[in-house]
Amino acid sequence: MTRGEARTRAKRLVARMTLEERASQLRFDAPAIKRLRIPAYNWWNEALHGVARAGNATVFPQAIGLGATFDEKLLKRIGEAIGREARAKYNVQARYGDRDIYKGLTFGSPNVNIFRDPRWGRGQETYGEDPYLTSRLGVGFVKGLQGEDTARGGTMLAAACAKHFAVHSGPENERHRFDARVSPKDLRETYLPAFEALVREAGVEAVMGAYNRVNGEPACASRELQRILRGEWGFEGHFLSDCWAIRDFFTGHRVSENAVDAAALAINSGCDLNCGDTYCFILEAYEKGLVSEETITEACVRLFTTRYRLGLFGRTGFDSIPYTEVESPEHLDLARRAALESVVMLKNDGILPLDRSKIGTIGVIGPNADSRRALLGNYHGSASRYITVQEGLQDYLYGSGIRILTSAGCELYKDRTESLARAGDRLSEAAAVAEYSDVVILVVGLDETMEGEEKGERNGGFSGDRETLELPECQRKLLEEVAKSGKPTVLCLMAGGDIDLSFAQKHFGAILDLWYPGSMGGRAVAEILFGEQSPSGKLPVTFYNSLDDLPAFEDYSMAGRTYRYIERPVQYPFGFGLTYGNVVIRSARLKGNAETGFFIVADIGNRGPRDTGEVLQVYIKRMDSEFAPPNPALCAFRRVWLPVWGHDTVEIPIPIEAFTVVDGDGNRVRGGRFELLLGTSQPDELSAALTGKKPVRFYADI
Predict the structure, then answer these.
(1) What CATH number did the domain enclosing 634 receive?
(2) How far does the chain reach from its first CA to its final CA, in angstroms?
(3) Active-site positions?
(4) What is the distance between the alpha carbons of residues 138 and 143, in angstroms, rounded to a whole number?
(5) Count of domains forming the chain
(6) Per-residue pLDDT tens over the stretch 497-510
(7) What is the pTM assigned to this prediction?
(8) Is residue 202 within a helix (H) or strand (E), and if so which, with residue range?
(9) How many Cα atoms occupy the beta-carbon half-sphere of 387 within 13 Å?
């Protein structure tokens, strides 16, 4: 049904409720209203890269890995797969009367915050540092998750939620009291575009407020942010708080005296749903005259509009989705495909792909080589089978006659693996494995215990923001030990963002960034290592040389941050990633005009030596404005696939918004002289040096 039809039914149902019943429905754990035959419903569910925290589900690569795919169509397919698994699980659980947390159809995904600083532990949940890339991938994910039929008035497959609105990207340990101060330019140019795209283009059903304040106002009770969201963008869905964020109003931000005042401030400012318990005080706020009955009613109507749009009060075509959709062969293959597209090759001196005929023994070394946890990242579900890098190679080479020797080499961050042993107790084993091997696959990095959400008992007290770009000391010693062997080595990094790879760049033949590649990650890595598939991912974040090159973590100004504003040398640039092929732009033309729109027609070819995927990237820079970022910004991209010596002609449309700049007051100003650059990487000097290719340039006057 259309939103209008759903809202009409919601108003009719809510009108039959008492005020107390309406207030009870504004909590994430909404109780049943038996007299109206309304079942209990828990709004809290997660689906960042697969249905999470609710038992078995397909575990796709972590969001940052999905960002590295630069593939909007893939994100849509993944969103749809997650939605179908969610329906399959919901259908069965509802039949058994299971209305517990993580069992509903409303998901706190995707996270479209900007990964503005590599220290942020939750950056792994995002699609990277670029607003345009984030918006395109987010739109694809939401359209898939909610269902294509939604735009035509059909029932939603599931409900997506754009989070965390807004200006949120650390520091984690300060988020309950932190005030993110941001200029109008940075707000409109960097922090809001992805949210706007999800509202205007994808019709995202929900938006979640962030923990922090934004320019003095709590994000979950910001009149200014609500004016933009509902006033400018026309958002009609429901708005919810991050979990226990409203409690922060009086415990952290000190903008309210107590829970009653906090509940009133939040709901009067447009927050319909409380993930937490502060809205238990809504009726007390009403009795004190702080909240009107009309405000409570409107929030309740918005929430029931979503439940009607999901078809939760009648029969839908999704009721027949069987439980066998969960981890179906098609979805597992999609997870494998996503892992393949997410791998970024940062270096290759010719060691890759590996040649079976020249290898008798492979050494697989490192604390993440056989780690299931390192496949996952945070906010994950449970797979029925996990294929680690070590297991992927063992499966792939079974029966080949190639011997695989293994050693963890060290703990993830501790100085010894056995408590009674001396420090470095697995280094000699790693050295022996390297000595007896023809080639070494060295798998290092982090996992969700070392980077993620705020530190606390619920995540073991380990994760949170990072204080350094370096690997833990025990892993750095392992790298040095393996380098001493002199054996050809492929370093595989498993982490959620930037790690200092200067040692690996100098001492090892190849570097692959695997991110957190999901339950099928090990299989995908094996296929890439042996050349069955070519790596084709691109960095969705900048790898910096040092944190000293960045402003303070607490500084939300974009000056000096990300590829658009950095003016210092970096280790690896945004948009960079090598392949086993050699895709070149044979010719290209800029067509169109300011009225009908511009697009680039490119003739491309793969000069070999292998079939490969590739990502064509278009960057733009206004040449005659003081408000333009110092470096060209991504404005379009297109993933392609070409066989050896194959060629194709592709059209890449340039969105009209690309021909604008944001001035100091936050206004988008159209017109001027623009330079556009087409290539397979960012058009900076380092990318040109690493790839040996320079971009094709165009100019347009608007």
Answers:
(1) 2.60.40.10
(2) 42
(3) 242
(4) 9
(5) 3
(6) 999 999 999 999 99
(7) 0.97
(8) none
(9) 22
